[in-house]
Design brief:
Blueprint (H helix, E strand, L loop, with lengths): L2 H6 L6 H9 L3 H19 L2 E4 L1 E6 L25 H14 L3 E6 L7 H14 L4 E5 L5 H10 L3 E3 L7 H7 L6 H14 L2 E8 L6 H14 L3 E6 L16 H14 L9 H6 L3 H7 L4 E2 L6 H6 L17 H9 L4 E3 L8
Parallel strand pairs: 1-8, 1-9, 2-3, 3-4, 4-5, 5-6, 6-7
Helix pairs in contact: 3-10, 5-6, 6-8
The structure holds 5'-deoxyadenosine.
Length: 344
């Protein structure tokens, strides 16, 4: 039995064994990692790829994460907020295209107090009773997460970014802590959200060993969703000259995550599609089963610049689902309009 079989049987690997899977130059082992991950995804989801409509509703952010273009120190970014009416009309357009999950993603924008945010979620819940509402609004209090859940939100995305505390401190200002972030994730889970976490691959100062902490943390949290993508530099951040994360590392980690969490919803992320023209395809062939096309108004997309070169047209755009579907068909997959709740 090799390492891939061992992991596929949901047995835990040692740090050294994980590292072997991440760096091995043994072509057979590498190929087996991807094939097995793909088989596990096929066994659980068939050849269906779930779609989530991404609505980037505010690019205001009070945080100052060193890697992110939305950081408050970035004075070159033109800031915007979509009105509730604009957001609901994005949902309306998405609904007509077949979307049954809306992901409201934004910076940590103080304008969105609990009252304001709950009004928005409640309006979406009323207008789209059969849809899942996913929030991605960063760190908030337990009480705030609870109120949003009661207002009708079902899922929450909050990447831990890195599970190594020292590394975390090198990516963020000193006042932010990994412990606080993890506490948010456990709070969200306790409230009843389907929770997604994840991390960047190849962010500055990252060591291969840190991935073992990420995998360990993810195993413990046992999230419904895991999003990982390569770090990509943004010219208006202190990390402008850092090199992007690697495609190979990202897809190996995707495959490992699929084997660890057979039923998790794992997106082939926009960052992966931005890094490489075949990124989305490689991600799916490594076990990813979700794509998140962009439903935001075009003017907003241009201002939601987490990193340089972010793709938001073509197959990344919600309005070109046909194109996306035909791309998926070319390697044996197809989009599904199913809500795609976690069945773990
Ligand atoms: N490169 C890649 N991913 C990034 N994110 C933010 N900035 C970058 C970047 N420069 C990711 C973070 C965040 C998510 C919304 O986008 O992981 O959680």
């Amino acid at each position: 039995m090799d390492l891939v079989d061992k992991l596929a049987q949901e047995r835990w690997l040692t740090g050294k064994e994980f590292k072997t899977l991440l760096i091995t130059e043994n072509e057979n082992l590498r190929a087996k990692l991807f094939q097995t991950a793909q088989q596990v995804a096929l066994a659980n989801f068939g050849n269906k790829i779930y779609i989530r409509g991404l609505i980037e509703f505010t690019n205001h952010c009070q945080r100052d994460c060193l890697y992110c273009g939305l950081r408050c120190s970035n004075k070159h970014l033109e800031r915007y907020r979509l009105t509730n009416e604009a957001i609901l009309s994005c949902c309306q357009a998405g609904y007509a295209l077949g979307f049954r999950t809306f992901v409201l993603q934004g910076g940590e924008d103080r304008y969105y107090s609990d009252d304001v945010m709950c009004r928005l979620v409640a309006a979406m819940r009323t207008a789209f009773p059969d849809c899942a509402i996913t929030l991605s609004l960063g760190e908030r209090s337990f009480q705030s997460y609870k109120r949003l859940f009661e207002a009708g939100a079902n899922r929450y995305l909050l990447r831990h970014e890195t599970a190594d505390a020292l590394h975390y401190s090198r990516l963020h200002p000193p006042s932010y802590s990994l412990a606080a972030r993890m506490e948010c994730l456990y709070a969200l889970k306790a409230i009843g959200y389907q929770v997604g976490t994840g991390f960047m691959v190849g962010s500055p100062y990252q060591l291969t060993d840190y991935f073992l902490d990420d995998l360990e943390f993810i195993k413990t949290l046992n999230p419904a969703m895991v999003g990982i993508g390569p770090f990509l530099p943004n010219k208006d951040t202190p990390f402008r000259h850092q090199k992007p994360g690697s495609l190979e590392d990202t897809i190996r980690l995707l495959a490992i995550l699929r084997l660890m969490l057979p039923k998790a919803l794992i997106p082939a992320t926009t960052a992966l599609a931005t890094l490489h023209p075949m990124g989305r395809q490689y991600g799916i062939l490594a076990g990813a089963n979700v794509v998140m096309p962009n439903l935001s108004p075009l003017e907003a997309r241009e201002k939601y610049t987490l990193y340089d070169g972010i793709v938001h047209t073509g197959a990344e755009a919600a309005e070109s689902l046909k194109l996306l579907n035909s791309q998926l068909n070319s390697f044996g997959y197809e989009l599904t309009v199913d809500r795609g709740d976690y069945q773990g």
